[in-house]
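worker-03 picked up job from queue 'complexes'. Input manifest follows; two sequence lines, order preserved.
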Amino acid sequence: GAVVSQHPSWVICKSGTSVKIECRSLDFQATTMFWYRQFPKQSLMLMATSNEGSKATYEQGVEKDKFLINHASLTLSTLTVTSAHPEDSSFYICSARAHTSGGFNEQFFGPGTRLTVL
Amino acid sequence: AQSVTQLGSHVSVSEGALVLLRCNYSSSVPPYLFWYVQYPNQGLQLLLKYTSAATLVKGINGFEAEFKKSETSFHLTKPSAHMSDAAEYFCAVTGGGADGLTFGKGTHLIIQP
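worker-03 finished. Artifact:
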């Protein structure tokens, strides 16, 4: 159980275009999803926290108008990189937190999406 | 606020030797701690987690970690390294389930034949 998928697994786009990445929880309902970014040979950095039905909360330094997050259902969150530029090339990883009552709610990670902007 | 420090960006051990990857954390609330492994061009795989139960946590692939509050540490160990253990390892902390994870910079584990 607790499987999270991402689509696409990799994407190459031209500078100035927009790219949408999907994150789905396949076998559980995720009230909260997180988006992380990982540059080559670096660690993961939290970009934003997305709660179903409400606006995402962005970490300091992350442009909300550039990285649009939509969490319209309990199983789907999308990240749209608008007007992508080469410096946005990175590995984007989402995680989903199951909704349970009491206790600690673990995050489950997707396999990541490799974005390359030419 | 939370932070994680992983000592040693690269660790090299011989096959069959003890693996020790160090992680120290800082947290203003009781922490939840994790170790993840990442193989090249892949996502994260959870090795083990500490969520305020037993301080010695056993994970997959023979790894274990011990939560030491007095030392603010959560070091990862494995008694005998295998070639397949070569990968990037990340320690992470969160203050609660509603928060995202704060990751350390990672430690690249190299296994010498």
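worker-03 released lock.
Residues 37 and 43 of chain B are 9 Å apart (CA to CA).
Chain B touches chain A through 22 residues (CB under 8 Å).
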